[in-house]
Amino acid sequence: MRKATAYHDALGDFFAEHADTSPYNAYTDRPAMLELAGDVSGAGILDVGCGAGHYAAELAARGARVVGIEGSDTLLRHARARVNGHADLLLHDLEEPFGFADDASFDGVLCALAYEHIRNRTQLLREVRRVLRPDGWLLVSTTHPTADWLHFGGSYFSHDWRDLPVGGSGLSIHYQRMPLETFLGELLTAGFVLEQLVEPRPIADLRQIDEAAYDKLHRKPSFLAVRLRRP
Ligand SMILES: C[S@@+](CC[C@H](N)C(=O)[O-])C[C@H]1O[C@@H](n2cnc3c(N)ncnc32)[C@H](O)[C@@H]1O
């Protein structure tokens, strides 16, 4: 049987809690992506793989109109509680076309740490391009290929599907590791233009809470984040 990539049941509950305060999500990925997003006031944003709604809630608080899509009903439940009616959230499998959205109906699309879970990324990017207006932006973050290589070993150029244990929980997430060339190459082949690439490091607040994690994540890459434009 094909392994599920959406985070169901115990994994969903674990991620919802972990993402709240984790050095990786709360202090590294989210601050970097929100900075790449810039001023979102009045923008229509699609949050692809919205998880427990951390991004959706923050973007809505900054004045955006947000639609979040997510394949796990466990996480959607957490997301609904978090956004408290300030974003529209839909159960949607990212392996399927975006039948819920018209062409050019969003100003921006955000896909945080979900891209590497998707098998049919060609279709996903075609759909993202279709629903973005011309000149709209796309933000994507993913696991850093060097971090995957350090963790899993083998070839840096491997495209194998792996299970990464999460935070001593006994649970693991299932995703495809890929070299930088594949990650960026897919986005450029889909017709997007690269505007910015960052290798996020934790914000200073983490130092007060967890100095060891702060130091570690300032030495060892964890994520990549890119901002692209739909021409
Ligand atoms: C690491 S979490 C990131 C969640 C959120 N973007 C964040 O950064 O807090 C990856 C998310 O992708 C979702 N996901 C993975 N595969 C999916 C699929 N095929 N369809 C819909 N969602 C999927 C998972 O359920 C999970 O919520």
UniProtKB/TrEMBL annotation:
SUPFAM superfamilies: S-adenosyl-L-methionine-dependent methyltransferases. It comes from the Bacteria. Residues 46-140 form the Methyltransferase type domain. The keyword Cell wall biogenesis/degradation does not apply. One of its GO terms (biological process) is methylation. Keywords: Methyltransferase, Transferase. GO terms for molecular function: methyltransferase activity. Transmembrane segments: none annotated. Signal peptide: none annotated. PANTHER family: TRANS-ACONITATE 2-METHYLTRANSFERASE-RELATED. This is SAM-dependent methyltransferase. It comes from Nonomuraea roseoviolacea subsp. carminata.
